[in-house]
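Predicting holo structure, pantoate bound.
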Amino acid sequence: MQIIRSVQKMQAWAGEVRIQKQSVGFVPTMGALHEGHLSLIREAHKKADKIVVSIFVNPTQFGPHEDFKNYPRTFEKDQKLLIQEKVDVLFYPDAHSMYEEGFQTNIVLTELSKPLCGELRPGHFEGVATVVLKLFNIVKPHFAFFGKKDFQQFLIIEKMVEDLNLDIHVVPCALIRDEDGLALSSRNKRLSEEERKRALVIPRALKMCQEFYQKGIKNVAQLQSKVLEFVDKEGDLNIQYFEIRDAKTLESIEEIQKPTVCAIAAYVGNVRLIDNLLLGEKNDSV
Ligand code: PAF
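Done. Tokens:
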């Protein structure tokens, strides 16, 4: 596996691969890799000839009081995992080469970025979209793989690609859970044993929502109040939101008729976790 740190070298590599008529599959990450990331790489191998993974903890997507400094960084371990997964290139730029002095251009987002995490983390998705667009221009992928764990992020990137006519196929990949049901996330590494147990209320709440839905409750307010009652009783979490919204537009709905996303964000101690479940779609369960 080649490790490329320079933007220009990465662009030159990608240009060369394209001249050879080979396809590039890209998995952007912030490192602290887990099975969820590895599942994206395995999907990438199914579709593309060459695989690039980036590791870049993007400062512009963290708010001033968020966990940029404490975000887990496990480069040595990540590198070994990527070699095992037969990744061709690890793109590992530093912040200075991604944001040179005088950097002043940002993507502006509208509707999809307004609710849920967008409301609570102002500027977060603009930071994500801007860095992803930069990474796309550097890595020049044919396919880019995003996990549905970050469901709002996936929708925003998919829309950006459509709106800006980028010639990239965005591939959504399944959310991966640990055996106990907790959605895999790099942030799980920051949970103590006791916090991890408390965090399990999150997937249990989603499962409960799914069960009520399967029993025929389609009214959003009713589902929300049942789930929040359960979380209040069982959980020792600081819930930021539990919302049930249209899975394409993220607009509020009153009754579940079309594919719908139940999304939750909560603090367990100092660690902010998100999770979601799609209702009205096949193969989704907690
Ligand atoms: O999902 C992530 O890890 C990040 O938001 C991404 C897409 C790598 C952009 O920094």
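The mean pLDDT is 96.
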